[in-house]
Design brief:
homodimer, BirA Bifunctional Protein, domain 2, Rossmann fold, Translation Initiation Factor IF3, 3 domains, 14 helices, 25 strands, 35% helix, 27% strand
Chain lengths: 481, 481
């Protein structure tokens, strides 16, 4: 679906207006659009293809840890949501409520799931009886709804797609290990597939999931220095198993409550993908997550060579796709050469190959890298192996560049003056006394929040950057999406 | 998740009570269960794994026809639904309505999608401008909600999972071809993967999709003689493009309305899978759609052989899975041999292999076919190739058996007396005058409907089985799910 208005659209530069630039990238790369229902989005085919790749990779990783998929209902009886007091407090302001159905007013309103702990744990309370039924390791891929007043495509939308894993265990220790294991899966995915380095750690009490004992998150840095939470993993303790009565008969013949975890990652990581790597020319995608790794652009003239060129392009596409097992697209649209390059540059295809009469004659192909714009000449007989190396190099270069950016924009800060200045620009590692009131005051004065208490926090005595009170280590502060 | 109550449960026989039998199979095979929200279902891991296989196969087939996936919003503004008069009339009684969200009453109620024509076509009206944008070939995998007062797991549930394809074309002919092509995809899928033979044809005016010009369907026969509609494909004509103003500038420089199709297949085919093949012992699954093709059951005793046996079972699983590219499961649960056989018999695993000390010693393995219960002895060195043949044979045997059943239970009938008798038992091919009133009267008197006017309807002059008026061919009558 070509949209002429988009093809011509100028992209706002990042330095001009980061937020406009983001919207322009989503637009020109044809990833998504706002729907007529305020806050909802339509994910267009190219954006959805990125999500499908994310799903494929993560789903495989989950299965390797023993997780199975299932599907639970969209609608949750209001009374279920109310069973865990913190949970209902956290989610009530955000829910959409079905009050009428089948032409009648319902006796009890139904909540459209904002997350599925309550509906899933009601089932677990019936499914789990004995220690032999444990652990339960289930994930679901689903849409969820949280009402948004200030929607932003992928980042904050009323409806979004995600996965939510829900596990139940015999012991507290097993649940804690699972919580961290799944955060590790997210970290590995984020760094090795999305090419986004992340800092993992514990959320503070004020920032944890409504109903959790502890929440862990991974935090990525965007090109404007803000943090984006890429995924969260919650140790729920027995906070849900008690109100939902999820009990089991243990080997010692005692009835016990299970220990639980839940963990989720959503379409908002596509927003991270955009903001971590893209440039003023358009989207930049890490090869491992790009819908097409290579786009072949036939150089067509008005003459009889065209059939030759097109069949050569097809032949090359089949060859590369077969030898490397990657997705290759031939752009046969009735457009100019320039327009096609421009089109795939905006869409972030990692590599473009030009094939024309000259290339056929010489056996040398022009290959263009999207990330750094290099134009290379590669002999046709080594094309697959060279493409393979280039894709690896793009993947690792993007990651390396993102790590450098993160390191350059992460500052250890010890004074409040410095804090206020640096937190406008990036990540800040500063001492905090552990007091939630101070955390709130820092947020009110700077807009920054504690993203997490990093796992690798070094033991270092210090003074809270705001209160001056004693602190035992630095925590990660940033403004965030 | 073992559920002791289920393990012990007796399965009602088909002859005793077909409907109870169906419910028992869903239950003992651990496919799904009713959720606390009336009409909704929870799809359990084993049932969901079947759906995942269905998705995988169909999604590949769709892509081969040029279709891309996308995702459109769950919520539809009520006014969109009202734009096509037949459409709103058909779906209004079934919709669930969100009236409150984010703690406030909404200005305009939102309908939870019962199907997505209206929300998708609003987007198409903005996306499509020129003949160069056509055809648009988009599919979405999604959940939809249609309020159900008499829910049955998989067959009729308030929420279900499905795919809905939505295409837009330049010409009426192209749309008609696409409508039939996608029905062909469903037929191929149903016959070659689900092993369910179907009769394809045109729906009558009274039975067509609300808003369609013409609806085509494929109809399968269940073991109780009732029909189940396995998939439908609609030629929407310009019924939606006109109210939604989906226009394009054609090559002849004229503004025209697009021609559209939509087509869908849902989790209800899992109901068909159960009712077409299963028996009084449990589920029977065609290998191509079974989550596990082979289950290896280690024969464990109390002694030291156990480690040997388990590692042999693993080795065999890796070997078969690698050589044939199929899913193999080793059942290592702490259960008796008998219980494990019983478990996988109920779950319909196509083949079970026993591995114990005796098998290791002799190199001969006991292989049990789920479909006909045969116990074979197969030498270990040819196990993969023999398993491969057996899986093919089970797949084709199930299909053949289903074809024979269908043929045996399809009667050409010419008198009303005969009609009433035969339609209680199976498919009836009878003459019908084409009058919708007569169609309604036949339904009122027998409960049967016209399932479709078959594509391969032979030209045959006759008299309507009810009115005695002239008819030009036989149509397919049956009671249905």
């Amino acid at each position: 679906m070509k949209d002429n208005k988009h093809e011509q659209k100028r992209i706002t530069s990042r330095s001009e207006d980061f937020s406009e630039w983001y919207q322009d990238i989503v637009d020109v790369a044809e990833l998504a659009e706002h729907s007529p229902v305020r806050g909802s989005m339509t994910i267009k085919p190219y954006g959805y293809a990125i999500w499908e790749n994310i799903v494929k990779v993560l789903d495989t990783k989950f299965r390797e840890t023993g997780v199975e998929n299932a599907y639970f209902p969209l609608f949750i009886p209001e009374k279920f949501l109310k069973k865990e007091s913190q949970h209902v407090k956290g989610f009530s302001p955000q829910v959409a409520v079905v009050t009428h159905a089948g032409g009648k007013k319902l006796d009890e309103p139904l909540v459209v799931r904002p997350t599925s702990e309550t509906i899933i744990y009601e089932a677990y309370s019936r499914w789990i009886e004995s220690y032999r039924d444990l652990p339960v390791l289930i994930n679901q891929w689903a849409n969820v709804v949280r009402w948004e007043l200030r929607p932003r495509l992928f980042l904050r939308t009323t409806e979004f797609l995600w996965q939510e894993g829900h596990t139940a265990h015999k012991t507290e220790q097993e649940a804690e290990e699972k919580t961290k294991q799944m955060l590790g899966v997210y970290k590995d995915f984020s760094e090795n597939f999305l090419a986004i380095p992340v800092i993992g750690g514990l959320k503070t009490e004020s920032e944890k999931f409504a109903g959790a004992l502890r929440t862990y998150s991974i935090e990525g840095i965007m090109q404007d220095g803000k943090a984006l939470q890429m995924g969260t993993s919650h140790n729920l303790g027995q906070n849900f198993s008690k109100p939902f009565k999820i009990k089991f008969l243990d080997e010692d013949n005692k009835i016990k409550y299970v220990w639980q975890t839940s963990w989720g990652l959503s379409t908002r990581v596509i927003g991270a993908l955009i903001m971590a790597h893209s440039d003023d020319k358009g989207l930049v995608l890490p090869p491992k997550i790009s819908p097409f790794k290579v786009v072949i652009i036939p150089v067509l003239s008005g003459n009889s060579d065209n059939n030759n060129v097109l069949s050569k392009a097809d032949e090359l596409a089949v060859k590369i796709s077969k030898e490397l097992g990657v997705e290759v697209k031939v752009d046969k649209r009735d457009e100019t050469l320039g327009e096609k390059h421009y089109h795939w540059e905006k869409k972030g295809a990692p590599l473009r190959i030009e094939v024309g009469p000259k290339e056929i004659e010489t056996g040398k192909l022009a290959v263009i890298r999207r990330d750094i714009g290099d134009k290379l000449t590669i002999s046709e007989d080594v094309i697959s192996s060279e493409i393979s190396k280039l894709l690896d190099d793009i993947q690792s270069s993007l990651y390396k560049k993102a790590v450098e950016f993160r390191d350059k924009n992460t500052k250890e800060v010890d004074t409040w003056k410095e804090f206020k200045k640096e937190v406008e620009k990036g990540f800040v590692l500063a001492h905090w006394c552990g007091d939630a009131d101070i955390e709130r005051k820092i947020n009110e004065e700077t807009g920054a929040t504690i993203r997490c208490i990093p796992f690798n926090q070094k033991k270092e005595e210090g003074k809270c950057v705001y209160s001056g009170k004693k602190s035992e280590g630095r925590v990660l502060f940033a403004k965030s999406y």
